[in-house]
Amino acid sequence: MIRPFIASISGKGGSGKTTLTALLLKVLLESGSNDDIIVIDADPAMNLHELLGVNVEKSVAEIVEEFRRKVDDVEVAVGFSKDTLIEYWVYRAIVEANGFDFLSMGRGEGEGCYCYINAVLTKITGKLVKNYSVVLMDMEAGLEHLSRRTDRYVDTLIVMVDPSMMSFKTAEKIKQLVREVNIEAKHMYIVGNRIPKSSEGKLREWSEKVGYEFAGIIPEDEMILEYSVNGKPILELPSNSPAVMAAREIARNIKLID
Q: How many domains does the chain have?
């Protein structure tokens, strides 16, 4: 294992990136790792905490908005810059869960506010990597986070693709945008979701052609749907479920576990 391990999971909306984030955390926890782990939900949809069974009282966006409403001139009032105090408040949003910490970025209020939240994420990520040996980030769907260079500290970039042309086009655009904005990820992987095993060879060939490393496929797993419908955390999936076993192999391929 290479540490620190800082990964972002990206892709088209609905491609399965949030599910993959949860599955990678599960197999990492089951591996017996002693890593200090933080999972960051940077998707404004804010679904990851439900898959992990984490209770989030406030997101970073909510804390920032509350701070901005309450404080008019912090620099004059207490002698600290607003950025310093906002950073302090953000750390208060970190939830200590069983074996890992969790941070939900959330969505800002009003037009343009999520740009500010992304700026906060970019700033604190550079400091979080010094406190954790594993950082897993579930990014917002699409390309906006890349254009804002939210992934600048990431060394492993994982892109999910599902059986849709739009998903593959998004992955191609992500690869192009990474080059354009000079994100220096050491590894860029493709993970397929709900793609038939018979198509694995074609997916591998396409990945290498576009410039990705191929990490594996998460198969159809009825238990994931069952857990989702019943509101049960993915972390409670049995270790021998098809999705968990596939995620374990993917985790090895991306050097998250041995």
A: 1
Which amino acid, one-letter code, is at 136? L
CA distances for 84 relative to 72, 79, 91, 110, 172, angstroms = 15, 10, 11, 23, 38
Query: What's the whole-model pTM score?
Result: 0.88
Domain presence at residue 228: yes
pLDDT band at 88 (very low <50, low <70, confident <90, very high): confident
Nearest Cα residue to 204 out of 196, 188, 195, 216: 216
| pLDDT bucket at 42, cuts 50 / 70 / 90 | confident
Measured in whole angstroms, the distance separating CA 31 from the mean position of its chain's CA atoms is 20
Give residue 219's domain range: 5-253
Looking at residue 4, what DSSP letter applies?
Answer: S
Q: Which amino acid is at 126?
A: G
Look at residue 33 and tell me if it is in a domain.
yes
Amino acid at 108: G
